Amino acid sequence: MNRMAKTRPHPQTAPIAEDALTQFLAWLAGVRRTSPHTVAAYGRDLRDMLVFFRTHRGDAESSAEALMGQLTEADVQAYLAHKMRPSGGLQSIGNGRGNASKATLNRQLSALRSFSRWLATACGAENTQIVHMRGLKVPAPVPRALTAAQTFQVLEAVAPPPVRSVTAQTAEGARAQKRNLALLMMLYGLGLRISEALSLTRADVAGEVVTVTGKGNKQRQVPLPLPVQSALNSWMNASHEAPPTAPLFPNARGKALTPRFAQKMLQDAREALNLPAHATPHALRHSFATHLLNNGADLRTVQELLGHRQLATTQRYLAADTQRLLSVHTAAHPLAKTGRTRG
Asked: Which residue in 193, 270, 286, 291 is the catalytic one?
């Protein structure tokens, strides 16, 4: 009884087991090499969640180890409901303002699961309910592609036809144009991610095939269509002195181009051509998949070319063009041809 009557600190000033939390964040940064932005976000999320859980459970003095070991899925569901409801009610607890997006809540759940797994290893405070708790279902965004006309506008803007008289100064500019065109042709003609294209070396190109290293260091062999092969050969011939291990798309110092360079290149083209805001390097990959499917390519083939592990990821491109699918159905299905219905 005396213990229950003991005065508890206010939720906002309750200790948040900084020792355990600080050690976890240091492990993320030092061992896992997690980005500073993610470490900072995880720190904010976990402090907010621990404050809520202590108040929700009426246990403001428990350590993080004890609290995490006692948490149930119902406790976490209560937190999610608290973060998703409009401002008011329990908003004095923690730092939440309500109406949090599902993407934000999934990030917070990821932080909680990671912290729980770390505590299980470091302190023996294992909680399988939390570790195996699934995130909220978030509809996958529909990829936004450029039209074929917009894509060709970008290619022509980045690499206009060369002039006849080439001075010593413009010779380097002509080589840069060939490099930039080859890069964009790899993005649009092969559907590469910008990180995949910029990590290529000259040795990765062998005749009519390029070896691409994708996510998880998974490699795939991608054939080079003639227009892409032509642009690539033009660039490689203009820079033939580079060794096989050199980046395929280097800057003036011989280092691989950065994603920011490609983003700036597309930004300049977008502004000059008055294109939509989604005209980015990644939009060229979306355009590759969308244009192939629009012209009858097999979904499995597009999946293989893109390097998707799951077919469902590739199927998102079909959702981007439901009107085309309806037109195909109308033109090809027997019921649509006869106009008959059964009743």
From this structure: 193
Q: Which domain holds residue 76?
A: 11-131
Three-state secondary-structure class, residue 202: helix
Active site residue 317: yes
Residues 6+ apart with CB under 8 A from 343: none
Tokens standing for 284? Answer: 């060229």
Concerning whether 117 is annotated as a catalytic residue, the answer is no
- Whether 340 is covered by a domain: the verdict is no
* Domain end position, chosen among 90, 106, 131: 131
Distance CA 28, CA 184 (A): 36
* Number of separate domains in the chain: 2
Of 83, 270, 282, 286, the active-site residue reads 282
- Residues 6+ positions from 50 with CB-CB distance below 8 Å: 16, 17, 21, 64, 67
Q: The domain spanning residue 222 has which CATH number?
A: 1.10.443.10
Residues 85 and 154 in one domain: no
In the residue annotation, 83 being an active-site residue is answered as no
Q: Active site includes 42? A: no
What tokens does 256 get?
Answer: 């691989």
Identify the active-site residue in 57, 220, 308, 316.
308
| 4 lies in some domain | no
| Residue of 215, 255, 300, 337 marked catalytic | 215
Residuewise pLDDT in 10s, the chain (343 residues)? 333 333 333 333 334 445 888 899 999 988 888 888 889 999 999 999 999 998 888 877 777 778 888 888 999 999 988 887 765 443 334 444 455 688 888 889 999 999 999 988 887 777 888 888 887 777 667 788 999 999 999 999 887 655 555 554 477 788 899 999 999 999 999 999 999 999 999 999 998 999 999 887 889 999 999 999 999 999 999 987 889 999 999 998 999 999 999 999 999 999 999 999 999 999 999 999 999 988 888 889 999 999 888 888 888 887 666 655 666 667 777 766 555 545 4
Catalytic-residue membership of 215: yes
Residue 193 bears catalytic tag = yes
